[in-house]
Design goal:
Shape of chain A: globular
Low-confidence stretches of chain B: none
Mean pLDDT of chain A: 96
Oligomer: heterodimer
Order of helices and strands of chain A: EHHEHHHEHEHEEHEHEHHEEE
Mean pLDDT of chain B: 90
Number of helices of chain B: 4
Number of strands of chain B: 0
Order of helices and strands of chain B: HHHH
Strand content of chain A: 15-25%
Low-confidence stretches of chain A: none
CATH architecture of chain B: Orthogonal Bundle
CATH superfamily of chain B: ACP-like
Structural class of chain A: alpha/beta
Radius of gyration of chain A: 19 Å
Largest sheet of chain A: 11 strands, mixed
Radius of gyration of chain B: 12 Å
Largest sheet of chain B: none
Distance between the termini of chain A: 13 Å
Strand order of the largest sheet of chain A: 3-2-4-5-1-6-11-10-7-8-9
CATH topology of chain B: Non-ribosomal Peptide Synthetase Peptidyl Carrier Protein, Chain A
Number of domains of chain B: 1
Number of strands of chain A: 11
Strand content of chain B: under 5%
Amino acid sequence: MHIYINGTGCISPQETALGGPLLATPREYEQVRLATVDPDYKQWIDVKQIRRMSRVVKMGVGAASLSLEAAGITAPDAIITGTAYGCLDDTGVFLTKMVNQQEEMLTPTAFIQSTHNTVAGQIALLLGCNGYNNTFVHRGFSFENALLDAIMILKEGSAKNILAGGVDEITNHSFQLLSRFGLYKKTPVKTMELLNSPSRGTIAGEGAAFFTLGITKQPGAVAELSGVSTLYKPLWEGEVIGHIMKFLEDNNCTPADIDLIVTGRNGDIDQDEIYEEVAEALFPDHAEASFKHLCGEYPTAASFGVWMANAVIAQQEVPEAAVFFGAAPEKIKKVLVYNHHQGTHHSLVLLTAC
Amino acid sequence: MADLKAQIIEQLNLQEVAPDSIGNDQPLFTKEGLGLDSIDALELIVLLQQHYNIRIANPDEGPKIFHSVRTMATYITENQTIKA
């Protein structure tokens, strides 16, 4: 069975919501925390409803709307999201009120909007979609597991069109906490120089990317979602390499069939080492594109990578801002997205031009 | 009543509503009025508790109390004990 990516939508620190050529005018930052470039959400959400939505909900609804518009679908059969942090901002608001007001006089809005599945719920409410609605909260596998669930449902035949995506936000509080864990650079780095920075830590990011997946190819589709696989806590780089080989075999191809690899390099010298090992072992002469210098690091950042891979297939060109190594062949047919989050959550997504 | 209107706007995050644009007798919960919903009703109950230390003992009174800004103000004046 073929699963087509009939439409995509992305809201990120780049101007991805505007449409047009991929990364035509990339935004360069010199900071350790990237925020999304927000479109006018009122084009999708009624003013009365928008007042209760935090940024992450608006991001999710916006990216989902873009994806459905691109696919020409108004009512998907299912909505599946992946998010590690959920509605962090409203969770913070609610918990702060709980403490300050000694668990009394708590307002309902922050509570209602503080759950992880609020984004999927709000999309369903706006669309009037009463179908399957699920949210995966699996840290660095949240987005990938949303895709896997969508694939299984489509293969079962219980849905024809599924809206699936990943979304995460960074708040002042979470940025402060994660900084204490040493996740981010100590001093600001120019984002276009991030991937060659010789230090530990990366830059924080956020965003939402949604995909309208279907078993019937719509006019806007350029790629199939050929495969998704995850690998948790590999013991050494050989296990990752073996996993990639097996994944390619399962999808009836070899490294030679891959035209472009899209990696989740994030500029942390420790975390990027595995990408070097994999490239050297399996893809020594392949063109490589990267994306985390454009969107920052967050648990569902792979969704931005998959969105970018789909756009590269659409344009048959890798934008200069995304090139890490080499030059892609004239025809870009198969793109492998390899990402890992904090060295523990490794994932593979294979897209094939259709 | 101007203060109460400002508090309602803040509590309900009515981003595009100015206090002056809410009529004293304008219905709060009808489409012709401000168009508030059941979640807003809960927020208004919390507003009365937080700002005026008023707990609504009888929920059946809700529609009458929250009919308009004027009915809310009247209820507050009649029941207020301590102003926060």
